[in-house]
Amino acid sequence: MATSPVPRPRLLIVEDDESILEFLSTVLNDEGYETCLASSQEAALALLHEQRFDLVVADLFVEPSRPRLSSARALQRFCTPTPVGIITGWSLPSGGSELDGFAFLLKKPFDIDDFLAAVAASLKLPLAS
User: Fold this and answer.
1) How many domains does the chain have?
2) Highest-confidence segment of 24-28, 42-46, 56-60
3) Residue range 85-113: average pLDDT?
């Protein structure tokens, strides 16, 4: 009896820098993940309305006069219980209540191995060899 293939974890990557978006997609696909890409928070919300993902990895879309995490918090509320990891060039505290509830926070530029470890930990998966 044939067994059905194990579905690949589906990740939504939200990043406005096209080169970073494509790089992360390539790396994650090579690691066995299925990726869907969005270049804005609005595009991400539209995709989240239509599809289910196992993890959302998002850059911060910071608006003047609003707290830096406000866009990520809105995304997090919309896709709960799906975990949200943050990648950003902005300086943020490394812990504390402000970051509670996010799967991870990585400051750009980050080590790709650290990124892959954070993704795997967020999905509760072993690292690929």
Assistant:
1) 1
2) 24-28
3) 79
Question: Residue 18 has which token pair?
Answer: 């096209």
* Token pair in block for residue 77: 């509320």
pLDDT at 76 (0 to 100): 87
98, part of any domain: yes
Label each residue of the chain as H, E or C: CCCCCCCCCEEEEECCCHHHHHHHHHHHHHCCCEEEEECCHHHHHHHHHHCCCCEEEEECCCCCCCCCCHHHHHHHHHHCCCCEEEEECCCCCCCCHHHCCCCEEEECCCCHHHHHHHHHHHHCCCCCC
User: CA-to-CA distance for 13 and 76, rounded, in angstroms?
Assistant: 13
Place of tokens 């850059």: 59
For residues 38-44, give the mean pLDDT.
Answer: 92
Check which CATH number belongs to the domain holding 116 and give it: 3.40.50.2300
Distance CA 60, CA 43 (A): 14
* Residue 96 domain boundaries: 10-123
* Residue appearing with tokens 């505290």: 93
Per-residue pLDDT at 25 exceeds 90: yes
Beta bridge partners of 104: 85
